[in-house]
Amino acid sequence: MVPWLGSLSDVRLRSAPPSGQGPCSTLNESALVVTESPAPTLALYRKHRPAAFDDLVGQSAVVDGLTAALRTGRTVHAYLFSGPRGTGKTSAARILAKCLNCERGGPRPDPCGKCASCVAISQGTSFDVIEIDAASNSRVEETRELLKGVDVVPAYSRMKVYIVDEIHMMSPSAFNALLKTLEEPPAHAVFILATTEPHKVPATILSRCQRYEFRRMAPETIGLRLKDVAAREKIRISADAITRLAFLADGALRDALVLLEQARGFAGDGAIDDAALDRAFGASHKETVSAIVDAIVAGDASAALEQVAAAAAAGIDPTWLTRELLRRFRLVLLAQHSPGTLAFETPPDDAKAVTALARRVEISRVYAALKYLSEALADKFSTQSRIDLELALVRIILPGEESGLREILERLRALESRSEGASGPSQSPPSGADAQPPRARQTARPAGASAAKTPASLSVAKLEGMWPMILSEIRASSNMLFGVLQHSTIADVAGTDVTLTAQNKFARDHASDPPMLKLIADAIAKHAGVEPNVRIVVGKSAMLAHAADPFAPASELDLI
């Protein structure tokens, strides 16, 4: 028999030695020869993972706090590491575990990295350092199974360390199971919780942990680390390529190392330059984005749409193009209001170009671009991303067209209202001071009062014409009130008294709160120039109710 020395992939069928010269002569002139497979290559972000706090770049505040606690012996039983992805949370947790369990004078702020405990933790083979991913172990049963061994003393190390990544993915029941252990942990247990979304972690857990915030790394810091790794790995890379990778990483060092490794594969035996990055991550299409931006600044809708058509013909994704345009106008906004922030968001050459662009574009057009491009991206269920982009560009370049049509519609409704008033009496029942004829009401106006401020200037038709703008104004202040008014109707307008209908009692009660009524009144006043008295009723409109029973009091209109 041929001894089994490896996996099936390691076995090759080769020619056997001549008959009688080896043990394989009975295998029909062939033999199974075992070969060793090459050792797996570690990814750069794993190979160059920080082994000590001195190697943890870009997180000086975290390093200072943890090393001070280790130096003074004031470590605690629970830590929460929060921050964006790829900023060193898990690496810091492993380093802290090595500091606590180092066999050469530990706990110490600078682990030796050579003792059995440090080596086992670095290789992920330590029995006393348990790493789990809460995203795949979020159920309460799995959490209880994990916590069963907390009371058991460490097998080889000084402390038993639990590193729980993505802790925010735990279920509420799992958090409750963890809470009791965090309240009264054994002396030999330390919990290090890591998350990218700390706002999803219950306050009861947060209050029992020391919290350390990991920050997005500056492009300069990432660039220096990439240069150091490239030198160690003997990767030839240009300075411009390092800068581009540093900004592509968006503050995450791990992402930068992954991008560097991917770019090395596309560069082959050559140096990593802009051409290699274009092949690896796609061309930047700066010319297309700049051409559309120039068309927006010049107010040339035709040129902008032609550039979109050319980009679609070249295979550029409209959604990606929308996102790039939004990013460009965000940079313009920063250049106009916060030039210091701009340096952290884009390379120096691009920052100069954006600053020059910011001097040419009107701030109102920047606001419009950010608004309409954001709306185009917000519709995740749209199947017509190109149409969404084209519509957004037209609305940015020709804002007067939309407002002009709205103004024409308002004028038409006002004319209809006047013609209805001239042809016959209004459907609204006269009552009180409003019972006098129209001409008498006109003579009772204070001298010098503008027409926009009088009750006669507000009508159902005019309010309906302004209603979309009024709803938009309310939406900026209260989404819930906006949702109620979306399903409401304008029941009646009598002078400055405005009656709206709601679908049910709950909607009426919510909209009838004094702060909500004030929001509605302020929105109407802003667009109509009239300070109204707003009332909310339930059921059929007030106009229909008055027609059915002209003498019914207002309270009977509230159908509950």
Structure in a nutshell:
The protein has 25 helices and ten strands.
Strands of the widest sheet, in order across it, are: 4-5-6-3-7
In the predicted model, the low-confidence regions spanning at least 5 consecutive residues are 1-34, 424-456, 541-560
Please give the share of residues in helix: 40-55%
**Overall CATH architecture of the largest domain:** 3-Layer(aba) Sandwich
Give the overall pLDDT as a whole number: 78
Structural write-up:
The chain is 51% helix and 10% strand. It has 5 domains: 39 residues, no CATH class; 169 residues, P-loop containing nucleotide triphosphate hydrolases (Rossmann fold), CATH 3.40.50; 60 residues, Helicase, Ruva Protein, domain 3 (Orthogonal Bundle), CATH 1.10.8.60; 100 residues, no CATH class; 106 residues, GMP Synthetase, Chain A, domain 3. It is built from 25 helices and 10 strands. Strand 8 and strand 9 form a beta hairpin. Helix 8 crosses helix 10 and helix 21 crosses helix 24. The chain has 560 residues and is α/β, with parallel strands linked by helices. The radius of gyration is 35 Å and the shape is flat. The strands form 3 sheets. Strands 4-5-6-3-7 form a 5-stranded parallel beta sheet, covered by helices on one side.
